[in-house]
Amino acid sequence: MGKSKDYFKGEVGELKQVIHELKKDIKRLQKVIEGQKKEIKTLKHALNDSILYINDDLANIPVEQIIAYFKDKKRGKLDEVHEHHKEELNNLKEKWKCHKCLTGYLRMVLLDRGDKKFYMRVCVNAICGNRTVLKPYTSDIEGITE
Ligand SMILES: [Zn+2]
What we know:
Low-confidence stretches: none
Number of strands: 3
Strand order of the largest sheet: 1-2-3
Bound molecules: zinc ion
Structural class: alpha+beta
Order of helices and strands: HHEEE
Shape: elongated
Number of domains: 2
Strand content: 5-15%
Radius of gyration: 38 Å
Largest sheet: 3 strands, antiparallel
Number of helices: 2
Distance between the termini: 98 Å
Mean pLDDT: 89
């Protein structure tokens, strides 16, 4: 009997030790949290100061200048889109270059015949006359339509 009582005492001692360690961990974490709360408070103050500063600055900028800024920004984006489209088109023109006249490229012409669509490729060079035969069209067929 005495042996199991000693064993039990040992277990309790171990648990007490674990609890003691956990309490120490909690204290340490509470200190970390306190530190972070202080840091957040400081950051909030800095942010509020920045907002006041920016508001002051904005009040001094003429409205026309702000509008012009956003217009330029938007135009820049559109230019990028056009540039990308032009590049793709040039790649396609190179891919579908006419091997007969070597100056034009083959444009895709779509034809509706009842419920079926057909296509052929025609050289854009009017004096070349190079064209492919009419074939059934599916949406995965690539080509220049403009
Ligand atoms: Zn041609």
